[in-house]
Amino acid sequence: MAARLLGRMLGNRRRRRLLLLLLRSPARGSGGGCARRGTDTGSLTKQAEATVATDWKKKLTPEQFYVTREKGTEPPFSGIYLNNTESGIYYCVCCNAPLFRRSGFHYSSEKKYNSGTGWPSFSEAYGTCGRDESNTNITRQPDNSLGSTRTEVICKQCDAHLGHVFDDGPTPSGQRFCINSVSLNFKPGSG
User: Fold this and answer.
1) In 60-134, which ranges are continuous DSSP H helix?
2) Residue 33 and residue 12: Cα distance in Å, rounded?
3) Distance between CA atoms of 25 and 15, rounded to whole angstroms?
């Protein structure tokens, strides 16, 4: 029952952060709200994180888990969506949030393109208005994992690692979102 309750609580990013803050904060006793001394809540946090990881491992394939939860990368030119030219929307494989679009109606509305890098590439996220990404389901954060600074792209709803974004894309955005196919689900005709 506790695992089911925890799963419901972790359904959205704000609730998950609140839960982790509560788990990390000192336990409160009945003595006027004073924190108990010597109470170790770190084990509760580790237990909650382990439960979340176990749930993701049940839901995702090993490759999806490696890429989205452990910040891995699929091999170049191996992704199922690399050469997809169908119109539709790409969704997060973990939480089903809409992330990127491919529209086949007008060349000027193309958001997915062939960058030749070996991963599906997009010039902007679904919901972008000009340079405003506040209505998208992605967030960016610095990534220094390989000895150079890159910008990681993460699902705003579930913190899944999606890929990276670079400033060498086509106009007008000038961006290249280099996204792992295994972090996506594609639904045709919805773009």
Assistant:
1) 62-70
2) 28
3) 15
What digits encode the pLDDT tens for the residues 106-130? 333 468 888 989 999 999 999 988 8
The identity of residue 75, as a single letter, is P
In the block, which residue shows the tokens 């998950």? 16
Q: What's the pTM value of the predicted model, to 2 decimals?
A: 0.72
User: What contacts 101, CB < 8 A, 6 or more positions away?
Assistant: 88, 89, 90, 111, 112, 126, 191
Q: How far is it, in rounded angstroms, from Cα 182 to Cα 68?
A: 8
CB-CB contact of 181 with 84 (8 Å): no
Catalytic residue among 92, 94, 155, 178: 178
Q: Give tens-digit pLDDT for 150-179.
A: 999 999 999 999 999 999 999 888 999 999
**Residue 183: strand pairing partners:** none
Place of tokens 């491992």: 57
Judge residue 5's burial from the number of C-beta atoms within 10 Å of its C-beta, 0-12 exposed, 13-18 middle, 19 or more buried.
exposed
Residue 178 annotated as catalytic: yes
